[in-house]
Amino acid sequence: MKKLIATAALLQFMAMAGLPGVGLATEVTDFQSNGFQAGGVEVFQTSPAVPAVGFHVGAIEIFPAIRVNVSHNDNIFEQEANPKSSLVTVIDPAVQAVAARGTNRYELNYHLSKGIYHNSSSDNYLDHFVGANVDLEPSSRLSSQLWANYNKTHDARGSTFTGLPLTFGTPDKYHETSTGGKVSYGINARIVFKGDYTVKRYENHRSVTVERDLDTTGFGIALFVPIAPKTSAVAEIRYKHFNYIYSSPIINLDSNEMRYFAGLDWEATAKTTGTLRLGYLNKNFASFNQIYAPKPSQISWELGVLWEPMTYSSWKLLTTYAPAETDGIGSYRKVVNVNVAWKHGWSSYLKHNVTLGYGRETYQGLVVPRKDRLITAGISFDYAFRPWLTVGVGYNYANRNSNEPNSSFRQNVWALNLIGTL
Question: Which helix (H) or strand (E) holds 272?
């Protein structure tokens, strides 16, 4: 079981790199209760069931893996007119080291991602990710999780400042450091405290990217109270502070967010689990004299439902409504996401994953608000040729319709995926 958990986690953080050029305008939020993850990241990735294979170095177990993805993207810059296509090769070696002592678990991850654009070599990249996680359980009532990550990565050209001409001939590079923790106390009724801190700094194209250097601080508290067998009522408060390093007398996007949620976590049957948060959100900007005039208060929701009618088949529904930071214009965005995924194992060797997604973004702080709608769809098949090798083929489609000139696009990505372990 520990091997299965370790390898699943390894494949998940490898998948976070994503398929190159699939332009999903989505956000990762705090919504991770019961294994759900909002923002469309998890459901739009291929997750082949590679058997866990590792080796021991003393008390430490090592899990190496490598993924090679070859795709054809017919619109690598997500352009409305004159799209550029390219064959893209991404090589992702990764390694995970896991140690356990009693109920405590220690994990260290490293992931390298090398991307090669065969028709646009200036967009080639080399990304690095290093992460550490510690799970501690000193008693049956008290548990804690600590993590720290360093990510040296990039924004693909066309993925930010959408609608504007491609100003530079290379991707925007940045590094991001984050750390956080969570403490939970209780068995049935329980209280959870969590906090995190992230520093993001861009490294090139400073005439534009200086405005996106950002420090983010977050805190949260949640109370879980059982109201029925396998069902808990939840009350939750989340705070987040956004501190932009650059500001001017007319542009200051520093803000504080407060989210107040009530909801449920449930396991209606052995086949159905879910989590629901409904509440109110307030986003207050530090400067009231800025040129933007946002309306910062709104309702917010997070819903995740997992239905597993059979051990080899599952359906997942994820939907969120929450704000997100701007990607170049306006003060912030109101984002709605709805994602559906169906995973099915036709045999112990052959599996498929079908995904559908809908996203709506409204850019705030503009005289005429920008409104985007994004429709995504994907299908992939994975076949385990050997215990150490899985081969996958897939197709992803994205269509963004925007009232902002030059911001709509269509994109088709065909991909071949190889994942191997020892």
Answer: strand 272-285
- Angstrom distance (rounded) from CA 369 to CA 362: 7
- Residue 180, classified by CB atoms within 10 Å of its CB into exposed (0-12), middle (13-18) or buried (19+), is middle
Would residue 131 count as lying in a domain?
no
The secondary structure of residue 132, as a DSSP letter, is E
Question: Model pTM?
Answer: 0.86
DSSP-derived letter for residue 10 is H
71 part of a folded domain:
yes
Decide which of 120 and 6 is more confident.
Answer: 120
Q: What does the radius of gyration of the chain's CA atoms come to, in whole angstroms?
A: 22
CA 364 to chain centre: 23
* 250, pLDDT greater than 50: yes
Q: How far apart are CA 321 and CA 272, in angstroms?
A: 23
Q: Taking CA 258 as the corner, what is the angle to CA 255 and CA 261, rounded to the nearest 5 degrees?
A: 155
CATH of the domain at 403: 2.40.160
- Residue 283's nearest CA partner among 235, 245, 234, 335 is 335
pLDDT at position 415 over 70: yes
Residue 280 CA to chain centroid, in angstroms? 23
The beta-carbon contacts of 310-315 under 8 Å, at least 24 apart in sequence, are: 312/344, 312/345, 313/342, 313/343, 313/344, 313/345, 314/342, 314/343, 314/344, 315/340, 315/341, 315/342
39 in any annotated domain:
yes
DSSP-derived secondary structure for 107-161? EEEEEEEEEEETT-GGG-EEEEEEEEEEEE-SSSSEEEEEEEEEEEEEEPTTSSS
CA distances from 43 to 36, 91, 316, 380, 420 (A): 10, 21, 8, 12, 21
Instruction: Give the number of residues written for the chain.
Output: 422
Model confidence pLDDT, tens digit, residues 346-377:
999 999 999 999 999 998 888 888 999 999 99
Contact call for residues 301 and 319 (beta carbons, < 8 A) = yes
Residue labelled with tokens 């993925």:
159
C-alpha 111/C-alpha 312 separation (Å) is 29
Residue 115, domain extent = 2-125+156-175+252-421
Asked whether residue 199 is assigned to any structural domain, the reply reads: no
